Amino acid sequence: METIVEKSLEDIFEEKIASEIRIEPKDWMPEKYRKTLVRQISQHAHSEIVGMLPEGNWITRAPSLKRKAILLAKVQDEAGHGLYLYSAAETLGTSRDQMFEDLLSGKAKYSSIFNYPTLSWADVGAIGWLVDGAAIMNQVPLCRTSYGPYARAMVRVCKEESFHQRQGFEIMMTLCNGSEEQKEMAQEAFNRWWWPTLMMFGPKDEESPNTEQSMRWKIKRFTNDELRQRFVDMMVPQAEFLGLTVPDKDLKWNEAKGGYDFGAIDWNEFWNVVKGNGPCNKDRLKARNKAQEEGAWVREAAMAYAEKAATREKKSA
Ligand code: FAQ
């Protein structure tokens, strides 16, 4: 005789995860899964928005009209990424206003990397090459993350990030093929951005409280250290091609592991930046709060227009 085993909602969820079926907004999901996603996606969205500031700093000082147009487009792309990601987080039942409030009050986290200053034009190249390079390394696997709206947003984001990385590399190449002074500028920017970029991947695996569960739920597909190692292995030959020196005296090819060994990351610096004490944390929050205040009239006008349009539509119906 056939016995009918009733599956619990949790069993159905686990089965979907095991068989690589995406979880969609109306599906049942464990509260912790929802919370982890809201945390990661909203932090990611905030990073895109705050990430506009360091490069935005150079729009008015780009060295040519062509460079200015490219940089403007890139910074606008980052705003778009933030918007896709806020939309993805909203499908989990959190409001955009709440997420914004958390960012503006300093409660929410965003990537540590955007708390460093952009001191020279070469920093724009270094960000595109290194920071967007790290973002791609982290985000290509997220195109296969288990939550549908996040995975779909990542597909488009990654296409745009690839263009961003190419433009950063191209700036670095131009500087490295230029005068002695330009090459020095590129090396100096590389020296400042290399270590903070390695920190972007998050704490080492044994100190990462979220990785194990996120890997089990297939939110993350690789650990922080796995992605960091892949990034180093990808970037060292690119730096060599540019004729730049990786600022790490302990960097060494390890034949047995088929990858590079690299020096110790300064985790005190990382946690200090995450806690709000990096070189630009206060400036970044100040700039976001100022933009929020100065944009209030635009939001009010848009709302007034939307209400009027809705009334008109009702009347004509
Ligand atoms: N900065 O347990 P884990 C971009 C926090 S977008 C600050 O390992 P998880 C595009 C973490 O939140 C860059 N905080 O956490 C662009 C957690 O705190 P919580 C952003 C960090 O989530 C380019 C605690 O430490 N990308 O660059 C950082 O499993 C150019 C323990 O860490 C994403 O957000 C950090 N670097 O792994 C834009 C990608 N790392 O929340 C403009 C999606 C860790 O428990 C210009 N996110 N923390 O209080 C992820 O893949 C993951 O969230 C990780 C962290 C890998 C970032």
TrEMBL record:
<dbReference type="Pfam" id="PF05138">
    <property type="entry name" value="PaaA_PaaC"/>
</dbReference>
<dbReference type="InterPro" id="IPR011881">
    <property type="entry name" value="PaaA"/>
</dbReference>
<dbReference type="GO" id="GO:0005829">
    <property type="term" value="C:cytosol"/>
</dbReference>
<dbReference type="InterPro" id="IPR007814">
    <property type="entry name" value="PaaA_PaaC"/>
</dbReference>
<dbReference type="InterPro" id="IPR052703">
    <property type="entry name" value="Aromatic_CoA_ox/epox"/>
</dbReference>
<keyword id="KW-0560">Oxidoreductase</keyword>
<protein>
    <submittedName>
        <fullName>1,2-phenylacetyl-CoA epoxidase subunit A</fullName>
        <ecNumber>1.14.13.149</ecNumber>
    </submittedName>
</protein>
<dbReference type="GO" id="GO:0097266">
    <property type="term" value="F:phenylacetyl-CoA 1,2-epoxidase activity"/>
</dbReference>
<dbReference type="GO" id="GO:0010124">
    <property type="term" value="P:phenylacetate catabolic process"/>
</dbReference>
<dbReference type="InterPro" id="IPR009078">
    <property type="entry name" value="Ferritin-like_SF"/>
</dbReference>
<dbReference type="InterPro" id="IPR012347">
    <property type="entry name" value="Ferritin-like"/>
</dbReference>
